[in-house]
Amino acid sequence: MSRKILYLLILSVLLSAMGFATWGTRNLSMSTSSKPWIYVPDDYSTIQEAVDSYHPDHREGIFVRADIYSENIEIPEDIERVPLILKGENVETTVIDGNGTETVVLVERNNVTITGFTIQNSGEGRGDSGIKLSGVKNCNVAKNIITNNRNGIYLQDSLKCAIYDNSITNNSHHGIELVSSNQNVMHDNDIAENDKGIYMRYSHYNVVRSNKIDKNNEGITVLTTSSNSVYHNDFLYNTRQVYDEAWESPYLTNSTNIWDNDYPYGGNYWSNFPGNDTYWGSDQNAPGSDMIIDEHYKIYERNEDRYPFVKPCPMPDFQIFDCGNYSIVGGAVYMCHVVALTNSSIENFNFNSTQGQISFNLITNISDSCRLIVPRHVLDGAFNFIVDDVPSACSIRCTVHEHMINLTYSYGSYNVKITGEIAAFPPITEFPDLNRDKIINILDLSTVAQHFGEKVEEP
């Protein structure tokens, strides 16, 4: 295989992983469509009766009015492959109670969205859960309270589902459990006081980001689980922040996962890892603060967070801006980010890849400063600075891979434009260490092999 083809295959893997960032953003408000909803208990006295009668030719979804519904619900496979929205009127007062028996809501149908409920009191049998997604894809579980179950949310053999904005607390076993489930995303959940916050078994290429994982016996537990991305989470006072079941078995191999999203985007906050922040840059060796601890957080063999945060997320003074897709020769794409370290407000941030220009409005009511960390594969070369249409001077420090641009100003509102050069190629190693374990081996090759033959789209 030629080196060029190999690079394209590897970068196609990265393209696939980047798709996670947009999952789970579906608008869950009541539709303005002329189709009426099925209402419970107006049209049907139970949620199960409404599910059994649902057909999208006549209805938008099922809207459940605030009340306590003591039932176990099954949403079976749908041969017509049509979506279903199950929406509660009020998350705190629309309650589905399993009365201590079996799974409260079992989903075996693709394209189901469950939102706006308190779901509680499942059975304690193996696999019993508040919500169980079994053999499905493209399902959403969002904005629910899931409590006092055996497992909060259980995904089995499920693909490309989104679990977000849920409160998942006081479940006797696992807050979220994944078994043989790949390419799912879990973000912006509050996962607290469960035995295991998140438990992943035989599950790969999932994204765990921007969750608060608080006071569980184990924050994240893994078993034969690799190539998952875990970043921008707060690991707060869990008895064990991370645990791999291979640690206590001579017959299992340690899982290898990715615990940050590169520099300057950063990793996670760990309550048991205080550290210094006196350096910046991808190698953390240039004098200056960047809100990232200078040392790696060692999780276990071949697993580390290279860029742990000094404070819990989100940090108002650590602002992240997406510069969009960055195309290179062959149609491969890198995602680009710029980080601003400031207490000022930044609005209308824009990156123009054609002009090689970053622009934004800077607003403050105090004398302040702003430090921009700009990767060289976003902008490079000699910079020109224009503030309110007037050429200006800014101090700049550089590392091998990044620039830090420093602006100081008094109170007011400013329009800032920074023009540079677009790099011809982002930095790339001779053969990428895809799982970042500092060893190029069969795990990296297997990642490429899974995508062998896929077409890389031209920009």
Please give a structural write-up.
With 459 residues, the chain is mainly beta. It contains three helices and 40 strands. It folds into three domains: 58 residues, no CATH class; 274 residues, Single-stranded right-handed beta-helix, Pectin lyase-like (Pectate Lyase C-like, 3 Solenoid), CATH 2.160.20; 104 residues, Chondroitinase Ac, Chain A, domain 3. α2 links the parallel β1 and β2. It starts with a helix and ends in a 9-residue tail after the last helix.
Topology (elements, then pairings):
Layout: H1 3-18, E1 38-40, H2 47-53, E2 62-64, E3 67-70, E4 73-75, E5 84-88, E6 94-97, E7 105-107, E8 112-115, E9 118-120, E10 129-134, E11 140-142, E12 145-147, E13 151-156, E14 162-164, E15 167-169, E16 174-179, E17 185-187, E18 190-192, E19 196-201, E20 207-209, E21 212-214, E22 218-223, E23 229-231, E24 234-236, E25 240-244, E26 269-270, E27 279-280, E28 286-287, E29 297-300, E30 303-305, E31 318-327, E32 333-341, E33 345-352, E34 357-364, E35 368-375, E36 380-387, E37 390-392, E38 395-398, E39 402-409, E40 412-421, H3 442-450
Parallel strand pairs: 1-2, 2-5, 3-6, 4-7, 5-8, 6-9, 7-10, 8-11, 9-12, 10-13, 11-14, 12-15, 13-16, 14-17, 15-18, 16-19, 17-20, 18-21, 19-22, 20-23, 21-24, 22-25, 24-26
Antiparallel strand pairs: 27-28, 29-30, 31-32, 32-35, 33-34, 34-40, 35-39, 36-37, 36-40, 38-39
